[in-house]
Amino acid sequence: MTAEQRYLPRMARRDTRHRLHDVDYSVNEWGDDDRPLLVYLHGWGDCGSTFQFVVDALESAWHVIAPDWRGFGRSGHVGASYWFPDYLADLDALLERYSPDAPATLIGHSMGANVAGLYAGVMPERVAAFVNIEGFGLRDSDPADAPAHYRRWIERLKSPEPFADYRSFDALADRILKRAPRMGRERALFVAEEWATRGADGIVRLRADPAHRLPNAVQYRRAEAIACWDRVEAAVLLVLGADTDFTSAAKSWIDPDESAHPFRGAATRSVPQAGHMVHFEAPETLARVVETFLAGL
Fold first, then answer.
1. Are strands 14-20 and 23-30 parallel, antiparallel or unpaired?
2. Partner residues linked to 206 by β-bridges
3. pTM above 0.85?
């Protein structure tokens, strides 16, 4: 791989370390501290530094922070199961450091958007605006499935499954391109080097903790999520990739007049030529959508 093949960032990124709830957190930062704050929250399997493409496309001057969630990217591993409420507590601790006296603007993708949506309802006074990119919860679970669900979790604890290894960053980039084919190879190679590291044996291994592959012991209860969403006071923008296959039920929400989505009164925007990984495939469009929304508040 040559330097010309890898995406070259326009905005310099710095890695700041914080101890949040006994976890060594890596927080990616761009821009001066005295600029308006944007907090980006990445999705499952991703990391904060891959928001680089969107940061490079922003027109206004911002202070952008993007943590690597516990067990992902360059943040520490907990060596045990990961529980969704911990993400809410980690976000709260992060905002105490970066925006202690003012509500923050959150931009979340997928899992990160689900964390942000819950947090904005639980702590509405701490969130001024929320851009939700493809993070609309899961299908409701069936209580009758609980016994089998708990059993599966217990059995998987006995023999956890590792993430796949790769012979090279190029091989990992191939996999990334299958998920987001429009992003181009230069960006895919950039993401590969952010997601993984090469060991002394030459093998490329993901930085993510394999414990993230365990099924959640607690089933998803959508009514609880909706109860939190109903308490959101922040201005909300819902963003979908026009070609997403991740949340097919959300396709009907693309029309701004559609009232079926769970965030009542929220504006919706569809990003063309993008699937679920909007920030990979259409970062320039996403940057414009975000800044236009925030400028109108």
1. antiparallel
2. 196
3. yes
